[in-house]
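Quick illustration, no need to memorize.
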Amino acid sequence: MAKHPKDMSPEERQAFHERAESQILHYKYQKPEPNGRPKQNTWLVRRPKIQVLIQCVREGGENNLHYHTKSETSWMVLKGRAIFHGLGDKVIADIGPMEGVNLPGGVRYRFSKVGDEDLEILQMVSVEDDGDGESERINLEAHKEWMVEGHLTKY
């Protein structure tokens, strides 16, 4: 177990801060040009304990009912409107610009854009590090045709 900074010598504390400061990340979002897929992800941060990305959802880019193990996700609409459904098509959240929803790991959900405008939605994922394997996405409904990556096709 790592020492708490208050229990470190001045030299250890300085090294602790320098290690952290050497990992500062700067990022900028620019809406991606359409590539023929109904959903495009722009990764801003991909770290072991946190992931931040913006999903640009176009017509047909809705996802299927699924859940995540060992992660908690916050969503915030930047542009457009999203509706989140749970089991039995229950509405979990209907959110517009600068509104969000937080979903603890294990919540069964799907979401889609509402209206004609593209949906740009910020996704912030906090990954639980319990030393017992990685977080997984588990599908409860058939995945959509555009979902080709392996992590999107697990049941």
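The domain at 37-152 is CATH 2.60.120.10 (Jelly Rolls).
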